[in-house]
Design brief:
Layout: H1 19-41, H2 48-65
Helix pairs in contact: 1-2
Length: 72
């Protein structure tokens, strides 16, 4: 009969994304970087409010794709 002290204590469980999930996340991150770079490098006049809304959209998408990054 096993005693309570014989079992190893589990302190945390790490969820490792699958290869498909990692590839999906990489594609989303690449898309976010392209959006951010296009916004920064654009030579035409872009209203500040448009830049702010685009930045908000990028941040929300990043939070959705990488929720674990928000714990840093």
């Amino acid at each position: 009969m096993a005693h309570l002290g014989d079992e190893p204590e589990v302190l945390a469980v790490a969820v490792i994304p699958s290869a498909d999930e990692r590839k999906r996340r990489e594609r989303v991150l690449a898309r976010l970087l392209v959006i951010a770079l296009e916004m920064l490098l654009s030579e035409g006049y872009i209203d500040l409010s448009v830049k702010i809304e685009t930045a908000k959209d990028v941040i929300l998408e990043f939070k959705h794709t990488y929720p674990e990054a928000m714990n840093i």
